[in-house]
Recover the amino acids of this structure.
């Protein structure tokens, strides 16, 4: 069950490393602390990249899932 | 945030496509991960800081033994082969949606990556300050070492 509202969705499908991360960094600047960013990607490397990016920036990776080859990440802005 | 930022220091010494990508890919990614980043461009790597040069960076097939070319290695030294290999490599990269070097450089500049041009290389290769992009600073080994001494990651590419 989702207990959050997505403020912004970023579509980085078909983009390759490092664009999903670079665009996510930009997009997170557009939302407020406590809000949620949804990212849709097709780069299989993004699974570990988004975990690493969140660990490093201390934003919270609330959800990481995959459906029909599309990876979906929900990130909570923490700072 | 009073927390000290992590730092990445890179020496970029190559001018081939395969040597030019890693410094910019890693620098922009690290900047997106809230690192403070500096790149020291030396020897052929300095070409990357020349104005209007980034999109003309090539790959020389001779010596790139892992490059899948439909020709024997020795043919790679013939005239025209570098431009052919460069075209092939660029078309593969375009198909794979890989960023252009110029796009990555723009993001690097935008995200505050410190670009240091090697003064000594400029002397050797007769490169003037005005030949280089405005966003870089000119410095020597000591400039880089001072920056690198505080870095969490140091890379030579």
């Amino acid at each position: 069950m989702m207990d959050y509202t997505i403020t912004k969705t970023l579509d980085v499908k078909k983009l390759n490393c490092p664009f999903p991360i670079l665009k996510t960094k930009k997009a997170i600047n557009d939302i407020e602390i406590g809000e949620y960013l949804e990212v849709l990607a097709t780069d299989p490397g993004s699974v570990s990249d988004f975990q690493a990016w969140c660990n490093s920036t201390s934003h919270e990776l609330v959800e990481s899932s995959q459906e029909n080859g599309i990876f979906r990440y929900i990130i909570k802005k923490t700072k | 945030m009073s927390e000290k930022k992590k730092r990445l220091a890179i020496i970029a010494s190559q001018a081939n496509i395969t040597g030019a990508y890693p410094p910019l890919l890693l620098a922009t990614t690290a900047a997106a991960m809230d690192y403070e980043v500096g790149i020291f461009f030396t020897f052929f790597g300095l070409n990357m800081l020349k104005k209007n040069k980034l999109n003309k960076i090539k790959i020389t097939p001779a010596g790139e033994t892992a490059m899948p070319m439909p020709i024997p290695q020795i043919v790679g030294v013939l005239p025209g082969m570098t431009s052919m290999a460069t075209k092939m490599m660029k078309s593969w990269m375009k198909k794979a949606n890989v960023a252009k070097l110029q796009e990555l450089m723009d993001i690097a500049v935008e995200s505050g990556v410190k670009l240091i041009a090697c003064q000594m290389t400029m002397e050797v290769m007769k490169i003037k300050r005005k030949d280089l992009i405005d966003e870089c600073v000119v410095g020597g080994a000591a400039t880089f070492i001072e920056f690198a001494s505080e870095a969490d990651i140091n890379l030579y590419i």
